[in-house]
Amino acid sequence: MSNRQTFTHAIECFADPQRRHEYFHLYSDDIVLHGYQGVEPGLEGVKRFYYAFWAVFPDARVTLHEVLEDAGTLVARYVITGNQHEEFMGVAPAGQQIALPGISILHFRNGRCFERWACSDSLLLMGQIGAPITTGRPTSFKREETLSA
Q1: Between β-strands 112-120 and 27-34, what pairing exists: parallel, antiparallel or unpaired?
Q2: Class of the 3-128 domain?
Q3: Where are the domains of the chain?
Q4: Measuring CA to CA, which of 10, 27, 31, 47 is 20 to 30 A from 132?
């Protein structure tokens, strides 16, 4: 099975509660996820993250918009959709629908992803579930000036 086939099979399983355990066949035991705050390296950490995600968004599915592959690297542009059914980030569930676009870069070794870099718009997600979003200027950032010689 090619890396692309492994990935698309995993995405199909992502949306099927009866086959979600197969989603993890995508990853090697030593998987490292970048862009997923708080997820410990290793397959068990990845499983904890996704099972918690599916508890909040049990009907979550991924729609692939673009998949590019070159040797052992695969890049995917996608949208995750679903409805919130459990509390998330302090926001009570009210069936809020999400449509979260993202991009991931997956590196494969021996047919399994061992490293994944992901980027999605967390602020958009928080707005979609109705979390309060402040628009004020952050006070903890300091402007640094660069002097040119």
Answers
A1: parallel
A2: alpha beta
A3: 3-128
A4: 47
